[in-house]
Predict the 3D structure of the following.
Amino acid sequence: MNALPNAPLILITGASRSIGAATARLAARQGYDVAISYVASDSAAQAVVADVESLGRRALAVRADSADPQQVAALFEAVDRAFGRSLDVLVNNAAVLARQSRLEGLDFARLQRVFAVNAIGPMLCAQQAVWRMSHRHQGRGGAIVNVSSASARLGSPHEYVDYAASKGALETFTTGLAREVAREGIRVNCVRPGHIYTDMHASGGEPGRVDRVKDTIPMGRGGQPEEVARAILWLAGAEASFVTGTFLDATGGK
C-alpha cells in the first residue's frame, strides 16, 4: 500500500522495543510515517518497520547511537533522504539503564555512558530537529517529546541514582528548550513513565521489578508500553497545540 504524500513524519529514537516500539506502531495507526533508530537488534527494528508498513505507512530503521554526534547527524540525514521532507515530530526515547547499585558501586565509565545516552543524546537529537523545524531556519514547526522517568522525581535510591539524575537533567533541558523555541513553531514536552513492563528492567538485573514494586503504585499495577505511547502521541499531536514545557506523568499515581 502506498502512503499518503502529506502524512506527518515522526522520528523515535531507541524504538526497536518496549515504549519506543509501541509508540512507532501507534503512530502508524494514527497516520504517521515513521523513522526509528536503534543500536542492538536488527531483527527487532525490522519487525517494527514491517508492522508500520503493514498499516500502509512508510517506515525506516537506522542504526545510530544517540550519544555519538556523528551518528546522530547521519541519522537525521538518512531520514531526510528517505522521506524527502522535514521532520514533524521527534521523540527522544533512547535510554540506558545499568545494574542496580548504590552510589559507592558506580564507576566513572558507567556514569559517562548513562549521561551521554540519557541526557546529552536527546540534546544532540533536539539540536538536529530544531535546525529542521524552527521558523528561524525556514522550517514548518514541529513537536519534540522527551521521555523521562518518574525516577527524576523519586531519585531511585539504592538502585539507579545515576539514571534518575540523568533523567533530571533531561527534564531541565525540556523546560529550557521549550521556552527557547516557543515562538519558533516548536513545542517541547516531556512524558514521565513510571513502573512499566519493559525489557529495560532486565538491564538492571531484575526482570520482575515491576511486579515487586506494584503494591507501591496507587493504581496497584504496572503500566504497559502502549499506555505511555498514547501519552507521547497526545503531546505530539494537534490536540496539544497550546501545550509546551509540560510534564505528563504516566505513573499510575506514584
Notes: The chain has a mean pLDDT of 95.
